[in-house]
Amino acid sequence: MVKSAGHPSARAARSPSVARVSLLIPTHALPSLSYGIPERLGPAVRPGSVVAAPLSGRPRLGVVVGTEDGQSAREYVLSVADDLSLPSRLVEVCRRVCEKAAVPLPVVLRAALPPGLETGRYRVLKPDRAWPWRTGEVVARAVLERALGPDALRAAAAEGRIELAPAPPRPPLVEWAVVRAAANPDLRRAPRQRELFELLKERGGASPTASLLAETGANRGALRELVRRGAIRVVRRQQAAPTEATEGDRAVARDVQPFLRLARRAVKSGGTFLWRTPAREEPDAVAAVVWATLEGGEQALVLAPEIGVVESVVGRLRRALPAGYTVAAFHSGLGRGRTAVYEAARGGAVDVVVGTRTAALLPLARPGSVCVVDEPSEGHRAEPGYEGLPVHVRDIALERGRAEGASVFCLSPYPSLRISAPEVRRRERIRQLPVRRSDAWPGVRIVDMRGSGAVFSSTLIEACRRHRDEGKRVGMVANRLGYATAVSCTRCGAVKRCPNCDLPLALGGRTGPLVCVRCGHKETNTGRCDECGSDRVVPTGLAVEHLREYLAEHLGEPVGLVTAASRDLADAPAVVGTAHCILEDDWDAVILPDVDAFLLASAVGAVERSYRLLHGAAEAARELLLVQTRVPEHYALRAGVRGDYEAFAAVELPRLRALGYPPFAHLAALTFEGSGSAVRRTVESRLRPALEPGVEMSAVVPVGRAGKSFLWRVLLRSNGRPAVARAAALAARLAAGTHGLKARVEVDPEEV
DNA sequence: AGCACGCCGACT
DNA sequence: GTCGGCGTGCTC
User: Fold this and answer.
1) Which of A75, A473, A699, A744 has the fewest CB atoms inside 10 Å of its own CB, making it the most exposed?
2) CATH of segment(s) A666-747
3) Where are chain A's structural domains?
């Protein structure tokens, strides 16, 4: 559905109003450009319209980000793709996200458009006689370019023979069975076919064949036979949005009731809220917010950090919400099926969308509320340089609240300090709902490991054995994958380091080799200390495999393993795994044998993560939380095992302020890929002189390599987020214009 | 002087 | 992203 300006004749003589267009070219280097609005397109061109406009003589797809009156422009908007246009308030959200996060505006806008949108396809309007394509056919730019050559392609576009035809990917086709009119087959001696036919009639005479076959257990032969008899037709239809109808299950809804009054009040008053509830109550709090939103006739968007959580929240909402509403999931795992959900959300046909970060900018016809589930999770932000925006979902949600008037809820027992700090809450007008504490708390044992070289204390081993003997389950958290992060001498304490990079060498397998994670240096593990000559060099840094082996030895029976990559013997009485995989489950006892690896990590943000780990571990443990440490008085440890978030914040916030870290100052992490000389030249002679006052920049530090090229890290810091974002955007622009240099930019990363 | 190549900035 | 201008440096 593209409205075209009939070519140059349509250019109005009097000065037309002007559209600012952000062309969908993913670069920092191209600003929004001004184009005239031809008279006949006038009303269709508004902020949010998706339009075609020429750049360097060829049409490009872009989004109108603003309109002005009076000025004239040399080039004109060519056409409008009405069926793709975004709500203008969402464009406002995209603009603010772009400014705050130093992500090019076209990249942010692209994230708000349908996934997989083809921007480089043309519809053939008036084919030349020599062309192999017919009128109305849609052809990819690459195909046209190969066949015609770039000049003829441009000429064809200028002559109006072809027209840019953006199209979201079509939903996949699904096979349907449809009863033929007046069909009355004799199925007395064909029970399978009869069953199929009856079920199909029960469903109103049309149904996807997959579910018919699954439900009756019939095979395709029975279906084919019905077709042969002329009883049914098999047709292919576009898959409808995979929405689910709510059920209003009373028993499940009862769990939601305690949250409902609060949620109704908050949704009604509007604004941004922190809601601290125990992790296991989060789905019910979300259900209450969604419920209250639907009562107001608006749509709810729920954002979860990963696909598994999305699916479980969808299931919970489907059962808990009153009957008569629709819920849909939106995440990358749905492939092309996502398009239909996108359309349904944009058109207001679905009431609730639950999605991963890819859904953060999903257009909604009636935006009512946005819930960020497990707010501090790092899954809410894409790694810079990979697909998706390197922006935390909470920041997008906050902007949606402001621009679209949606109520925003950030849920977690332990929200990130950058959103819960009193200064931030005041500045951003974030209100805190009454805190709900876990009603059960396990017993806590903190085992002081000072003066012990052992991996496991006797307390730990006894606790494991006791739980095992009582038929209870123990979950143990490891901090690393693999076997060991380093080897050190038990006599003098020296750590074996890489001769090139000075980094501790990691142990690849039980007996070696020793490998450098940065430069790839490899050596055999001799077990001998280079410093004191002892032969007592042993693995340290308790990685998953090692812990598992060790624990199995002590218990005299196999121990389970759960990581993102593998699940083995997950039902064993004792299971070792990564923090993420262990803590999403419930255990009788949770054991953190090496919490110091988290507490003492050098990254700022690591302490906060440790607090969450401890608090989360306590919530996941029914009876016992056991922690081994050499810093038993550490504030994050003491507060974490009690779930005392306020006590932790009271110490950590002043520390962050003193260090000049978010939320008290803002950072941008720049990662450059290229030769050291190119990086230093760009950073020192071009970026540094251009920095605004108040923006500090660190030195260039090597941080490893990506394949053949080297990676370098530079940190920018400023009191104001806009200033640091501008500097980061400048860095990205400089790198984009420098041959052999790539930059990835992240403003206020979760951890530095 | 004439031309190839690569860098840089403009493009609306 | 893509193009053209222009400066550098090489060849005829």
Assistant:
1) A699
2) 3.30.70.600
3) 2-119, 173-238, 243-432, 443-652, 666-747
The single-letter DSSP state of residue A376 is T
- For the domain covering A2-119, report its CATH number: 3.40.1440.60
Is A148 or A393 the better-scoring residue by pLDDT? A393
pLDDT for res A305: 97
| Distance from residue A122's CA to nucleotide B3's C1', rounded to whole Å | 38
CATH number of A443-652: 3.40.50
Report whether pLDDT(A117) > 60.
Answer: yes
Q: What angle do CA A278, A282, A287 make, to 5 degrees?
A: 150
- Residue A301 CA, nucleotide C3 C1', distance (Å): 43
Q: How far apart are CA A437 and CA A419, in angstroms?
A: 19
DSSP A129: T
In angstroms, rounded to a whole number, what is the distance separating the alpha carbons of residues A59 and A7?
A: 13
The one-letter amino acid at A405: G
Distance in angstroms, CA of A739 to C1' of C11? 27
Superfamily of domain A243-432: P-loop containing nucleotide triphosphate hydrolases (3.40.50.300)
- Average the pLDDT over A481-499 and give the result: 74
The pTM score is 0.87
Cβ-proximal residues to A34 (8 Å cutoff; 6+ apart), any chain: A18, A19, A20, A21, A68, A71, A73
Q: Report pLDDT digits (tens) over A42-63.
A: 788 999 999 999 998 888 999 9
